[in-house]
Write a structure and sequence with these properties.
The chain is an all-alpha fold. The chain contains twelve helices and no strands. Helix 3 packs parallel to helix 7. The longest helix has 40 residues.
């Protein structure tokens, strides 16, 4: 006869399996975070101080932080705009063509970010493809200044964040029940009405998730802003690199790292609260329908 393990025995086995994983996470994630936090609170003489946070939130450092937040918001908005159109088109394709389209969107993400960034530098340069095309078409204002400024940084970071946005949105759009749209059309609703009053509310959770994900990832992104922004356009990640590698200001860099970490946790908290709110709303709707 086969014996079934007792619940207590299964719990002990699960706990024993979880201990190495927990220790591994504590060693690689929690311990470094504690070290960075303690470094950001350590003064020149070794005592406790908030000087590094005060310095990070004032003067030119505050301008860099605000610029980073603005670039992240612009990248999230542009990624949502382009990603929504792509995801909507892919969601309406047949499965075979949708898989091929997703492959085209995702595969460039596996190419080195350094290579992709230099590709954008070549394309956006004064004599690059975009300016050459605009000049040949006699576009007003051509050639455009698309590099080593905020415009270039946003274009480069958007290309990096776009696959994440499309993946999230396409998954949500695939889950929309098309019968609802057909029923609304059957009752005489116009396409705009169907889109804004039925389709858009159904995919709004995905839009919020994709936008917040792009914003959080962009906060600490380094390669593209450093190469396409130049010395005139500094973000927090590039500033941390300067403080560590050139100025030997580990305490100030640690303070900036903690600030970015807190902003990330805040974004994740907003995302979690939104998910709980959706579950509560769905539970109330289910309870009312029953």
């Amino acid at each position: 006869m086969r014996t079934t393990p007792m619940p207590g025995h299964r719990s002990r086995v699960a706990l024993a399996n979880a201990v190495p994983v927990t220790l591994f996470l504590l060693l690689l994630f929690v311990y470094p975070i504690i070290g960075v936090l303690s470094l950001s609170l350590e003064g020149d003489s070794g005592g406790f101080t908030l000087h590094w946070y005060t310095d990070a939130l004032s003067g030119s450092n505050l301008s860099v932080l605000v610029s980073t937040l603005r670039i992240s918001a612009e990248t999230a908005a542009l990624s949502l705009l382009v990603g929504f159109v792509l995801a909507h088109a892919i969601a309406r394709m047949r499965p075979v063509f949708a898989a091929l389209a997703m492959l085209i969107v995702v595969v460039p993400h596996f190419i080195s970010a350094l290579v992709r960034t230099y590709g954008w530098i070549i394309m956006l340069g004064e004599h690059g493809l975009i300016n050459a095309l605009a000049t040949s078409l006699h576009a007003p204002g051509a050639p455009y200044d698309l590099l080593y400024n905020e415009t270039g940084v946003v274009i480069g970071t958007t290309s990096v964040m776009l696959p994440y946005t499309v993946l999230v949105l396409q998954n949500v759009m695939r889950g929309v029940d098309r019968r609802l749209l057909a029923a609304a059309a059957g009752f005489g609703a116009s396409r705009l009405t169907i889109f804004f009053r039925i389709y858009l509310p159904l995919v709004t959770p995905g839009i919020g998730t994709a936008g917040l994900l792009s914003f959080i990832l962009c906060l600490g992104y380094y390669i593209t802003p450093a190469l396409m922004g130049g010395s005139k356009q500094t973000v927090v990640a590039a500033l941390i690199d300067q403080q560590v590698m050139k100025q030997d200001q580990w305490n100030s860099a640690a303070a900036f790292g903690v600030i970015l970490l807190l902003l990330t946790f805040a974004g994740l908290g907003v995302l979690g609260l939104a998910g709980l709110r959706r579950k509560k709303t769905a539970a109330r709707g289910g309870g009312g329908s029953s």
